[in-house]
Specification:
heterodimer, A: mainly beta, Immunoglobulin-like, 6-stranded mixed β-sheet, 5-stranded antiparallel β-sheet, 57% strand, globular, B: mainly beta, 12 strands, 52% strand
């Protein structure tokens, strides 16, 4: 059974802080790992990672994957109140009709205070 | 702007009632998914569909069924709602052979 564990489950920081969110996984035949951001609405896609050691970056957010140690991190630098959200990590297995059949972690609730 | 629309944002139903949750996407996506989201458990896959009239069970299909009569519409059905089905339900869609899902805003169901 595929499994994704995120840590911490919640985090409270002040604007300007840097945060690191963790995601460890177990999956049969790994295809990809994805990060989503969920505010009080639909989760929105952030990153997809398939190869170890290649950093994906978008503005103040970045993410990297370690396929040997089976984890990924999501970094947010110079946090803003608009970064407050639930951050979801998910893995996708390879093979068969598994496209889009994601296994999600519990999510990390990030709260950024002014 | 591409969209996945869930018609009901909030529903309150009684135990034993039949519940329909509707999801419509305007992106001509082949793949559609139903997840439920509970605190501490994350999102769990209930059912998915790769084509019209086609469905496959996800990780927690018990107590649910689905219908996909048209490409753009994927319905989740609770034949006899129970209190343990109180949850947030998220619909999503994607292109074939694609793993990036576009989610709807969710339907929060309370079963009393």
């Amino acid at each position: 059974e595929d499994k994704v564990v995120q840590s911490p489950l919640s985090l409270v920081v002040h604007e300007g802080d840097t945060v690191t969110l963790n995601c460890s996984y177990e999956v049969t035949n790994f295809r990809s790992l994805l990060w989503y951001k969920q505010e009080k609405k639909a989760p929105t896609f952030l990153f997809m990672l398939t190869s170890s050691g290649i950093e994906k970056k978008s503005g103040r957010l970045s993410s990297i994957l370690d396929k040997k140690e089976l984890f990924s991190i999501l970094n947010i630098t110079a946090t803003q109140t608009g970064d407050s959200a639930v951050y979801l990590c998910a893995v996708e297995p390879a093979g068969g009709t598994s496209y889009g059949k994601l296994t999600f972690g519990q999510g990390t609730i990030l709260t950024v205070h002014p | 702007d591409v969209k996945v629309t869930q018609s009901s944002r909030y529903l309150v139903k009684r135990t034993g009632e039949k519940v329909f949750l509707e999801c419509v996407q305007d992106m001509d996506h082949e793949n559609m998914f139903w997840y439920r989201q509970d605190p501490g458990l994350g999102l769990r896959l209930i059912y998915f569909s790769y084509d019209v009239k086609m469905k496959e069970k996800g990780d927690i299909p018990e107590g649910y069924s689905v219908s996909r009569e048209k490409k753009e519409r994927f319905s989740l059905i609770l034949e006899s709602a129970s209190t343990n089905q109180t949850s947030m339900y998220l619909c999503a869609s994607s292109l074939p052979w694609a793993n990036v899902l576009t989610f709807g805003a969710g339907s929060r169901l309370t079963v009393l």
